[in-house]
């Protein structure tokens, strides 16, 4: 199924297949995503949603096919350039992946430290992002002392602090109550309105009612089943 819509695309997948041993996790996926799109990737458990995000983030390599991100063919990227490409991404994990013995501030600041930013910039930028996500008052707290919703907001802050052009979120509300889930989704929507391309993997199609514009990419057994426009 081709999805080329005739405009410049920030992400392009050509006949992408991913195998784990003899099991097909993704099967011949061809997909185009334009800059600034809001995409829901839906499907049941085991459909390939998380695998799709992992190969975009280069946490996994494809078995067959090609991926082009912002004009860069991932099959040809050198190991030296890989960290610079990853800085274009912000990743929100389902299980947060916060460092438990580092404060909220330190968890978010780590992204900018790795990028070589100076301390004064880091402090200003991190506190700004924590204010936006409603976590400024918890800057000196350790992640284990926070609720699940608070930890996920810290994970969003960490994902966006480097001002990535693409934000990937893997089941970001899967373990949250409805109020916390809506708050996290609204945070992501805010960054989308500022120009970021957002891809959210979720088995909960009802969450898409929050958004008036976007597309739902439905996977089933690793195959691209359907692409539809989100209408509220």
Automatic annotation (TrEMBL):
Give the source's domain of life in one word: Bacteria
Classification via SMART domains: AAA
Give any Gene Ontology cellular component.
Answer: plasma membrane
What does the sequence similarity comment in the record state about its family?
Belongs to the ABC transporter superfamily.
Recorded hits in SUPFAM superfamilies, A to Z, give: P-loop containing nucleoside triphosphate hydrolases
Identify this protein by name. Answer: Cell division ATP-binding protein FtsE
Residue ranges constituting the ABC transporter domain according to the UniProt record:
11-232
Ordered alphabetically, the record's keywords are: ATP-binding, Nucleotide-binding, Transport
Described by its record, this protein's role is as follows: Part of the ABC transporter FtsEX involved in cellular division. Important for assembly or stability of the septal ring.
The protein's organism comes out as Desulfobacter latus
- Keyword Transport (UniProt): yes
From the UniProt record, which GO molecular function terms apply? ATP binding; ATP hydrolysis activity; transmembrane transporter activity
């Amino acid at each position: 199924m081709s999805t080329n819509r005739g405009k410049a695309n920030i992400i392009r997948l050509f006949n992408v297949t991913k195998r784990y041993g003899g099991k097909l996790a993704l099967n011949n996926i061809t997909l185009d995503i334009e800059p600034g799109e809001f995409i829901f990737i839906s499907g049941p458990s085991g459909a390939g949603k998380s695998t799709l995000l992992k190969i975009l983030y280069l946490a996994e390599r494809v078995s067959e096919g090609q991926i082009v991100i912002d004009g860069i063919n991932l099959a040809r990227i050198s190991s030296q350039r890989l960290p610079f490409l990853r800085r274009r991404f912000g990743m929100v994990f389902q299980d947060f992946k916060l460092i438990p013995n580092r404060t909220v501030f330190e968890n978010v600041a780590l992204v900018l430290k790795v990028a070589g930013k100076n301390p004064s910039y880091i402090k200003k930028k991190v506190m700004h992002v924590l204010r936006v996500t409603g976590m400024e008052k918890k800057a000196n707290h350790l992640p284990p002392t926070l609720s699940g919703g608070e930890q996920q907001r810290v994970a969003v802050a960490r994902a966006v602090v480097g001002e990535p052009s693409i934000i990937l979120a893997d089941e970001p509300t899967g373990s949250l109550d409805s109020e916390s889930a809506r708050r996290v989704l609204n945070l992501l929507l805010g960054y989308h309105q500022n120009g970021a391309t957002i891809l959210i993997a979720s088995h909960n199609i009802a969450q898409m009612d929050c958004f008036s514009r976007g597309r739902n990419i439905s996977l089933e057994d690793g195959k691209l089943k359907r692409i539809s426009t989100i209408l509220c």
